[in-house]
Amino acid sequence: MLLPTDFELHRPTTVAEAAALRAELGDTAALYAGGTELLLAMKLGVLEYEHLIDVKRIPALRGIERRDGELRIGAAVTHRELETLPDLPALAHLERHVANVRVRAAGTLAGNLAFGEPHADPPALLVALGARVALVGASASRELPVEDFLTGPYETELGEDELIEAVIVPVDGAVRAAYRKFQVLERPAVGVAAAGRLDGRVFDGAPVVVAGAVDERPVRIPADALAGAAYDDPDALAALAAAAAEAVEPVDDLSGSEAYKRHLTGVLAQRAVLALRGEG
């Protein structure tokens, strides 16, 4: 497949310049860093743009910075660069299993969010960790929780003049996190993330459990049954599995039936919670 050549390529060198281009060109333009989703869609003829704005060379989007108990991941940081992230082992573990090495070497965490692909790994864990996106527009900046930024399949709250500057993830040494998924095709069929505090073997409050890839956007799974319970309490885990199966609205497709995916969501919710003892 060949990429269409009837578009103009822009290579801004600052965030402000990129935002100004977004404002000027409107919906005739698309941003890209790795382009693993966007360029494929253009090759297939699913998307057409008159302008592409390449942001991967903007220095301000390249770094990973620890600041005030949070990790600020620049929008041009690739999945590959996050595979050995010491501050967030669960995210590093997830990143090592995103797609394939070619995608991880080029694709970015911010780009994954901006595309709004529902069958993706990062969103569930980012929601469980309370991550935010920092957005920059032509005249203003703002932050949104990842949970609010993703509004539906291929739909986000990204404004016409905005770009993602960074993904901001809280880092709390007392919070354990894990992500577990099931995948038979190119993308995950179901993925579940869990994050919470353990006092020995017992949960300090209820963990946050989030299902991804199985619904139109990440879905929080009620986990009240685990509050004050041992992480491996069979009754609490059974209640969690039942709540997980009920919380999502999957559809039949090549990855499995609706009933099968509901069951998988429950199983993976249990596995994610059990993994909190070791994390990752």
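the 2nd protein, sequnce then structure:
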Amino acid sequence: MNDADVVAQEREGSLKPVIDIIPDEVYENPTWKGMLYFARDASLYVASLVGLTLVSNVWWDVPLEILMVLTVTALFVVAHDSAHGALFNTKRKNSLIGHLGMLPSWHVYEAWVLGHNRIHHAFTVRQGFDFVWHPLTPEEYRGLSRAGKVLHRLEWSWMGAGVYYAKEVWWHKMIAFAPPARWARAIRRDRVISYSYIVGLAAVLVSVDLLRGASVGGVLWLLARAEVIPFLGFCVMIGSVVHVHHVAPEIRWWPRAEWNKFRGQMEGTTVLRVPRGVNFFFHWIMIHSPHHVDMRIPMYNLEKAAAAIEKVYPEVVHDAPLRFRDFRRNTKACKLYDFAEGHWLTYAQAALT
């Protein structure tokens, strides 16, 4: 391909020039490596589950709950990679690990594939298409009921990211929606798998606790600690993570006619550097721009891909340290969106329009 072709593709918003600079070795995904990550995270999940079952002490409950949330998150990231076909070299392996890895987070595998892979990744930050943290316009916000406005203010605050994720992504896009006919059978099957895991694990926990002579209150508390709290904690974790991936004052959302793949995947995503040790559980999910450029890159090679991309496009990639104060700043500045002008608004700014 000559330079003129590259320039033409870039003007059209193609990702091909970006993909072409990613080294071939970045796509290598040996089976043993993916299985090792899955086995490690699954072992930690089982260990924390056993710990919560056998120990009921506030000094142990808190660290065990934190470990449980982190391992549920880690397993989900492994499953997320599998759902993209990035972690293993066959569809069967990816499907198996993807299904297993999403069970602790109560996610419906094929529903996730439909919403995340085919919609969110295909139309990142495109108005009317990408449903993940899609902003309302000032006019749409004014049309909400009083209760709707209160809920919006909660969900778009740093404290409400988990509420938003549980309602908009998990409930509306996995549980309480009528799947398109093409994917209906697979999604309904995976709903049964997810429900069976939740109920089956609860039955095991109840049986173990009753055999130990626990009271009804004790049994309910165990179910809360071992299943409900980890799920809610995961929603807070993943909701916050997805927010910082795609919402910031400098990240623009695009009207349908102006959107293209380059703007969506390169300009609408971030690379956030986490403290040492965090990737033990996060599995490089914060190195998000190369993941959106090419979903086939396995999680453990995202840093290499990011380095190659940033070398050629240093002015495009948003690369910064992950800091809680930036997350709070983003949630304060990014409440509503003016698609005509192409910028975020606070509630106060929107009231003046």
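The chain has a mean pLDDT of 94. The longest strand covers residues 270-273.
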